[in-house]
């Protein structure tokens, strides 16, 4: 049987390790990518920006391609980088912006953060074909989406493809936090993780202590019952009796 002191020490060490690991849990500042789309323009007449004619198919008569994306739970400034690639794979433009720090406005985080940008074709019509947009946040590739620019003659002869949502970041960025949706407090999922860990620690402790308490005590020779054999009939009899229960004769 494992020594009681050794068992207690093992239990304490396990509890200390679990408690230390629970204290090391910290909330990692992050973000969540929400709704995004290519569109012809962005309506900024209200606090909640809206895409105008969302689509991923444009015409060579369009002077710009706009991109709009919403990020959720933005807790700190992030560097956002947009790379626009022409149909031949060459880079057309790179745009970099930094999100506003919510703490500069007195908030813990932005509940949602709307970002819009445009690539403008001023000097000449845009190149026809399949364009690609790559979106990086803190130099990490998050989105890679495509949109198409068709000839006006082609689009007038055939029905225009259905509008679909897509990803991509653009040129001059206007970052606008939505005031009505900003919260000052946040429910952190790390608290739930900590609660689950504490419950697990208590369960392990109860199991460890329960195993120790349910072990039967060791019987030493002096505590064990001694037996002997009857000298008359040879039957096994208990040590604390004077007469054999089988033959009835006295046991010497």
Per CATH, what is the topology of the domain at 32-181? Immunoglobulin-like
Beta-strand percentage range: 25-35%
Cα-atom radius of gyration: 38 Å
Across the major sheet, the strand order is 2-1-4-7-10
Helix tally?
Answer: 3
Given the C-alpha coordinates, what overall shape results?
Answer: rod-shaped
- Tally of extended strands? 12
Residues in helix, % = 10-25%
Query: CATH superfamily of the domain at 32-181, please?
Result: Macroglobulin (MG2) domain
Mean pLDDT: 76
Quick one: CATH class of the domain at 32-181?
Mainly Beta
Q: What is the CATH architecture descriptor of the domain at 32-181?
A: Sandwich
Gap between N and C termini, in Å?
39 Å
What sequence of helices (H) and strands (E) makes up the elements? HEEEEEEEEEHEHEE
Helix vs. strand class:
alpha+beta
* Low-pLDDT residue intervals, each spanning 5 or more residues: 23-28, 169-188
What composes the largest sheet? Answer: 5 strands, antiparallel
């Amino acid at each position: 049987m494992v020594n009681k002191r050794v068992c207690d020490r093992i239990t304490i060490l396990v509890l200390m390790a679990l408690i230390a690991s629970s204290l090391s849990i910290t909330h990692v500042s992050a973000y969540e990518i929400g709704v995004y789309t290519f569109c012809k323009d962005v309506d900024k007449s209200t606090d909640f920006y809206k895409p105008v004619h969302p689509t991923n198919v444009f015409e060579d008569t369009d002077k710009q391609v706009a991109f709009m994306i919403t990020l959720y739970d933005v807790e700190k400034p992030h560097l956002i980088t947009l790379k626009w690639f022409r149909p031949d794979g060459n880079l057309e433009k790179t745009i970099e912006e930094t999100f506003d720090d919510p703490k500069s406005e007195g908030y813990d985080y932005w509940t949602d953060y709307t970002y819009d940008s445009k690539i403008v074709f001023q000097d000449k019509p845009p190149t026809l074909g399949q364009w690609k947009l790559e979106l990086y946040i803190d130099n990490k590739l998050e989105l890679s989406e495509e949109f198409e620019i068709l000839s006006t003659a082609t689009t007038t002869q055939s029905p225009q493809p259905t509008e679909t949502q897509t990803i991509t970041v653009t040129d001059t960025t206007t970052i606008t936090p939505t005031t009505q949706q900003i919260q000052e407090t946040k429910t952190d999922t790390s608290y739930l993780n900590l609660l689950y860990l504490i419950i697990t620690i208590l369960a392990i402790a109860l199991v460890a202590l329960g195993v120790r308490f349910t072990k039967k005590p060791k019987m030493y020779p002096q505590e064990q019952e001694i037996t002997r054999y009857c000298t008359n009939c040879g039957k096994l009899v208990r040590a604390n009796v004077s007469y054999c229960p089988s033959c009835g004769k006295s046991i010497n």
